[in-house]
Design a protein that fits this description.
single chain; 130 residues; Sufe protein. Chain: A; three-stranded antiparallel beta sheet; 5 helices; 41% helix; binds FE2/S2 (inorganic) cluster
């Protein structure tokens, strides 16, 4: 029997048209810092690159070996954090991301953590470089 599709239309749209996804070689994208994390639950990985000016994220790009939920979540996160200060961006957590997406299936909630942690790693990298 066919199973019902459980992703919201917003999740599907972000998965199919991910915002701020880094196409091509990261060496061609000028960035101030980067962060990479792995999800211990599934082994997926996320890498994030940020441009920072006056303590604000002026641009963000990312790439991943993650699943559909991780792609949609990080796409949403990338929209949510642009223009925010570093501290404000750190406060954009999985709850805000999943709310922005109209929800995620309970067992896919951990996927929304991946982008958040990669961004936190990139911000830490930026601060370490100061
Ligand atoms: S299953 Fe790995 S991030 Fe979603």
């Amino acid at each position: 029997m066919e199973q019902a599709w459980v992703y919201s239309d917003i999740v599907k749209e972000h998965f199919l048209n991910p915002r701020n996804f880094l196409m091509g070689d990261e060496a061609n994208y000028p960035h101030d810092a980067e962060g990479i994390v792995g999800n211990p639950v599934c082994g997926d990985q996320m890498k994030m690159f940020i441009q920072v000016k006056d303590e604000k994220i002026v641009d963000v790009k990312w790439k991943t070996y993650g699943c559909a939920s991780a792609i949609a979540s990080t796409s949403a996160l990338s929209e949510l954090v642009k223009g925010k200060t570093l501290d404000q961006a750190l406060n954009v957590g999985p709850e805000e991301i999943t709310a922005y997406l109209g929800g995620l299936p309970q067992h896919k909630f951990h996927c929304s953590v991946l982008g958040h942690e990669a961004l936190a790693a990139a911000i830490q990298n930026y601060r370490n470089l100061l």
